[in-house]
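Researcher: I'd like a structural prediction for the single chain below. Treat it as a standalone chain; there are no partners to consider.
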Amino acid sequence: MSKKNMRRIRLLVTAQTAYHLEELAKICGYKEQGRVVDKLVREKMVSFRMERER
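Model: Treating it as a single chain, here is the predicted structure.
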């Protein structure tokens, strides 16, 4: 694994959310659910920035 600025965190989610994270990981081809969380957070921050610029 390449050297990246990573932090280990824990998330407490419902069973339904865990299921959806697993499904999104499969769809996107990710090995880990954490990458799905990263992707969702990045997309949300981009949308907030776009709204703020308007």
